[in-house]
């Protein structure tokens, strides 16, 4: 019979073992650096934060405030579900997860930290909704938002050990996010929402908040006791996620995170063999099959074409950046395949394909996806009165391939090069490797300059401007294929 041992001495031994390989003030220096950086960034961006959380002219109606709250709820819950939320550190996963120690005591610190983070997120969301709402509200609602965030963390913790509950809560969160975004888009395009009731009395708000606080305390106690049901594989998956995030931040290598997300998605899918389309090149057919096997992403990509409608009243340069970003994100739906080709060209050599033919075949699906997204987004903006007259659907068709070549170039970038010489500035040394990696692909957005000039100048989309954009995109893509590939080699890393 296995006896349960005390957890505190084991944790103390792990800390001492870790401290033997570190400097004594390493942890305190890290905490000081993080807190100081947050404080400095907050002071530098105080005007932006004030404009986001408490603008001078509020613009949300009652229905808009509810829609924003629904979006925040869905995002917080889905983020918690992706992070675990209950996790352990790598040493604890190695030493303590399979050890005969109390499971609630082992996982309670993680649940407490997650609940605190969710409370901060919920309180910030409630503060932002109140600051942007036309009607005034009680400041106690900020506390209500924080308590609701804790309840979302406890719900995500319960779903971590119950697959059916996880599927249900994830579906509800996605529906809340979709409905909230639909309400915001409808209001931004001119829909007049119905007026809600007057402001609730302060006594009612205090009573509801007090009842919610009591419910939160009870739910937290039950959640700590329920931690024993959390399976090891779910905890290890959360620990892997936290470790990958830490490695991505410490090593300034975002590809770690994207690769983990891709592997996690396909590891949970049951696939069957399917013939590639015979009328398409083999790699283009593979990309098309990959896009078809991710219907949820295609649905969200199609729905995201309406999101630029939320930015009709903002400065035009913000709308242009949103359009370019959405186009590139839509084109990246199949970029994982060319990452695989760049990292392991063995299959390409077996197929007898050189680098130019590979990049040319991989470019078709991203270009088509980018063109479809740009055409739909610009068409919706024109229908809503956010753009001047013109053939904006044709401008989207001419602009879309630029998003495809940007996605392909970014996928071929490989890892961040930390061996490049840093640049010394008056504020300290700046590593050049992450900067070069960040601009890999974005430099090709210069091919979208004709469309950007037309949008920033608030000019109509004439056929001349469309022809210029199509010509620049075609010449730029041709030059990229000629300069970055070679018919005599297979390697794609660039």
From TrEMBL:
Keywords recorded for this protein, A-Z: Membrane, Transmembrane, Transmembrane helix
The keyword Signal is annotated on this UniProt entry: no
Residues that span the membrane, as ranges: 25-45, 57-80, 106-128, 140-159, 171-188, 200-222, 298-331, 363-381, 393-415, 435-456, 463-481
Keyword Membrane: yes
Name of this chain's protein: DUF6297 family protein
């Amino acid at each position: 019979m296995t006896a349960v041992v005390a957890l505190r001495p084991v944790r103390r031994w792990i800390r001492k073992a870790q401290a033997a390989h570190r400097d004594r003030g390493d942890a305190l220096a890290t905490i000081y650096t993080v807190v100081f950086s947050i404080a400095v960034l907050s002071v530098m961006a105080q005007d932006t934060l004030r404009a986001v959380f408490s603008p001078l002219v509020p613009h949300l109606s009652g229905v808009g405030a509810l829609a924003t709250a629904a979006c925040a709820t869905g995002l917080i819950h889905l983020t918690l579900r992706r992070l675990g939320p209950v996790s352990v550190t790598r040493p604890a996963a190695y030493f303590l997860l399979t050890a005969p120690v109390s499971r609630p005591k082992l996982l309670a610190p993680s649940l407490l930290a997650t609940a605190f983070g969710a409370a901060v997120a919920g309180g910030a969301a409630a503060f932002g909704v109140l600051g942007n709402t036309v009607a005034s509200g009680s400041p106690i609602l900020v506390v209500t938002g924080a308590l609701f965030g804790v309840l979302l963390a406890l719900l995500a913790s319960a779903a971590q050990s119950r697959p059916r509950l996880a599927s249900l809560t994830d579906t509800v969160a996605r529906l809340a996010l979709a409905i909230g975004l639909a309400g915001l888009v409808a209001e931004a395009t001119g829909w007049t929402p119905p007026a809600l009731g007057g402001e609730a009395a302060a006594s009612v708000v205090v009573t509801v908040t007090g009842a919610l606080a009591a419910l939160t305390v009870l739910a937290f106690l039950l959640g700590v006791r329920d931690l024993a049901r959390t399976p090891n594989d779910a905890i290890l998956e959360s620990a892997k996620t936290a470790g990958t995030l830490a490695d991505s931040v410490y090593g300034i290598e975002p590809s770690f995170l994207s690769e983990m997300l891709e592997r996690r998605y396909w590891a949970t899918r049951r696939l069957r063999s399917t013939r590639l389309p015979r009328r398409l090149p083999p790699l283009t057919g593979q990309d098309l099959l990959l896009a078809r096997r991710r219907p949820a992403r295609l649905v969200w990509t199609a729905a995201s074409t309406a999101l630029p409608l939320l930015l009709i009243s903002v400065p035009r340069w913000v709308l242009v950046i949103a359009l370019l970003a959405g186009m590139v994100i839509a084109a990246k739906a199949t970029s994982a395949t060319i990452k695989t080709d760049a990292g392991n060209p063995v299959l390409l050599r077996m197929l007898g394909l050189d680098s130019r033919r590979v990049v040319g075949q991989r470019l078709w699906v991203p270009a088509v996806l980018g063109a479809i997204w740009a055409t739909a987004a610009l068409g919706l903006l024109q229908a809503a009165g956010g753009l001047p007259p013109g053939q904006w659907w044709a401008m989207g068709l001419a602009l879309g391939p630029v998003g495809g070549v940007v996605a392909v170039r970014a996928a071929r970038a490989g890892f961040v090069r930390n061996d490049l010489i840093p640049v010394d500035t008056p504020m300290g040394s700046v590593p050049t490797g992450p900067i070069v990696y960040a601009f890999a692909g974005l430099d090709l957005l210069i091919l979208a300059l004709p469309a950007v000039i037309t949008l920033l100048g608030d000019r109509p989309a004439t056929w001349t401007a469309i022809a210029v954009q199509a010509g620049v995109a075609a010449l730029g893509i041709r030059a990229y294929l000629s300069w970055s590939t070679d018919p005599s080699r297979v390697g794609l890393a660039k």
